[in-house]
Amino acid sequence: METQARDYNVKKVVPFFMVRNMKKSLDFYLEGLNFELKNKWDPHGSIEWCLLQIDHASIMLQSFSQNSDVKELGRGVSIYFICEDALKIYDRSIAKGLPVSEPFVGNAMWVVGLIDPDGYQIYFESMTDVPEETMYSDWIRPDPSLGCLMMRLSKMTEFWETNFKDKGEMWGAEPAESALASMELFEKSGLEKILIPGIGYGRNAGIFLERGFKVTGIEISQTAIDLAKENYGEDLRIYHGPVANMPFDQDWYDGIFCYALIHLLGEAERRKLIRDCFSQLRLNGYMVFVALAKEDARYGHGQKVGKDTFMTRHGVNLFFYDDHAIQSEFGGFGLLKFEKITEPAQSHAKKPGQKFYQIVCRRDQ
């Protein structure tokens, strides 16, 4: 029996929402959720109907006539957008100040919910292997009583304490080239107060101090902090503890520089670090992250413990970024640009350069 190829006629469904205030609705969808205006009808100089699109999904909005007496619009109406990463929508909504509900896992999917100005319920969902009914706040900051987070932090502290005690200033005294580039960006932008999570023994802090920046650091190793104090004295304020415990203060910072730290963390911890940094970033401030790229020679070596994550022979997990991962994790936090870099730029056979991304974000609101 032959099977004939079916000629599909119906291609997609487009929700049609009646709205009370078109300008308010457009602000919500265009500015808040990053929809694009694809078509419009404005017979009297203002938009009365429009077609909006986000990636491959669309909705239409239509204004009621002035004489319409409508009391309830969105009651009982829900629209679900299936995404690659619903948490990216959540991050953007938080950054834009939208009233978004806390994500949770339902039916093996992250669920992010919002209500538009007319009461229509908008949901974004994406697949996940996080346990059912997990709340975002529990996932991003696990309950220490479970022991998993505390055990991991204990191992990290022990690892870095041992390394700094045995090797001291293991990366030398010269700052990373990306630190120099970030210092120039911060200086050109008129920034003054800088936060450096994972400051180590301060090799990347020195250039900021020399140029008159006020520098605060966060460091998990007390031995590294002692080394930094020997080099820079009380000019350098350092909080002792893991970045998972941020924030350590309620200060605002003009600039944040985070070098070769974020790829040592799990996904929930990475997202929390980005969010915590952004939440302490002053308006018009910049934050720069330097993170391992998939092109680095270490990618694929060691035991695979997660997506693009491998455990080294020393027991350290390394996550390797690509363009998609950057957009997913940084996209809701003023992502300005990112580029692949090699550090050091002038590498040689005995010490090949490491492949990184330099990721730049700016807080515009």
Give the topology.
Layout: E1 16-19, H1 22-32, E2 36-41, E3 49-54, E4 57-63, E5 78-82, H2 86-96, E6 104-106, E7 109-115, E8 121-127, H3 136-140, H4 148-167, H5 177-188, E9 193-197, H6 206-210, E10 214-219, H7 222-232, E11 237-240, E12 253-259, H8 267-279, E13 281-292, E14 303-306, E15 309-311, E16 317-319, H9 323-330, E17 335-343, E18 354-362
Give structural notes:
This protein has 365 residues and is of the alpha/beta class. The protein has two domains: 16-139, 2,3-Dihydroxybiphenyl 1,2-Dioxygenase, domain 1, CATH 3.10.180.10; 153-362, 3-Layer(aba) Sandwich (Rossmann fold). Helices cover 26% and strands 29% of the residues. It is built from nine helices and 18 strands. The protein has helices at 22-32, 86-96, 136-140, 148-167, 177-188, 206-210, 222-232, 267-279, 323-330; strands at residues 16-19, 36-41, 49-54, 57-63, 78-82, 104-106, 109-115, 121-127, 193-197, 214-219, 237-240, 253-259, 281-292, 303-306, 309-311, 317-319, 335-343, 354-362. The chain has a seven-stranded mixed β-sheet with strand order 11-10-9-12-13-18-17, sandwiched between helices. The protein has a four-stranded mixed β-sheet with strand order 1-4-3-2, with helices on one face. Strand 9, helix 6 and strand 10 form a beta-alpha-beta unit. Residues 143-147 have low confidence and may be disordered.
